[in-house]
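Encoded backbone
================
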Amino acid sequence: MILGKLDIFKGLNPQELALMADKVVVRTYAKNTVVINEGDYADALYIINSGRVKVYCSDKAGKEFIMNTMKAGEHFGELALLDDDKRSASVRTLDKSNFCIIYKEDFNRVLDEQPNIAKVLIRNLARRVRKLTHDVKLLALQDVYGRVVNVLNDLAAPRDAISSIIPDKLTQQDIADRVGASREMVARILKDLVAGDYISFEGRQIIIHGRLPAEY
C-alpha cells in the first residue's frame, strides 16, 4: 500500500491506513500542468505515483525560485489536511504525472472515526519542519558554491562504488533558480568542477566522481 510507505503516515496501523486508502482519488495530469497555485486555498494532499513535479514560488516580476523537484513516492500539500490556510508555493508537472489525492473533506471524515491519525500526522509534520529549518539555515549561511554542492548531492543517486549520477536533466538555470544565484555564477562553478575532474557530463546528466570539495 503506497500510503504506508510515506513518512507522513509513518506510525499508522493497518486499519487506519485502510481507512485513508478508501478516500484516495487518482488523477493524471499532462506535462507542464500547474497542479496547485501559490495563494490558492489548500484542500488536498497529493502523492506522486508516477512522473515528476517542481515546487516553486514567484516574485512580483514573475521570476521563479525552485524550492524542490519531486518524483514518484513523494508527496506535497500535506498541510492542507490540518489547516485552512492558502498554498505557500505552486507545483507544476515536469512530465505526465499520476497522483493519489486525499481531499481535506474526506480526511476529516476519517478523523471522526480515528482521531489518533491527527496525532501521528502532527508528529510526522514536526519532523519535516525541523528538516526544513535545517535546509533554510544552510541556504542562509552557505555561499553560492556550498549551495550548488548541496543541490548536486541532494539530487544524486549512486552509480557505482565511487561515483553518483543526477538522473534528471538539470540545466544551469535550474540550479541557479534553486540556489538563488545567477546562471553565470553557476556556469563558472560547474566549469571549474569539470576542470578539476570532480564532475562530468553525459548528455544533460551530471556524473559526480566521488566527494565534491567542501570549499571553492
Q: What stands out?
A: The CA atoms of residues 37 and 90 lie 4 Å apart. The mean pLDDT is 88. The longest strand covers residues 64-71.
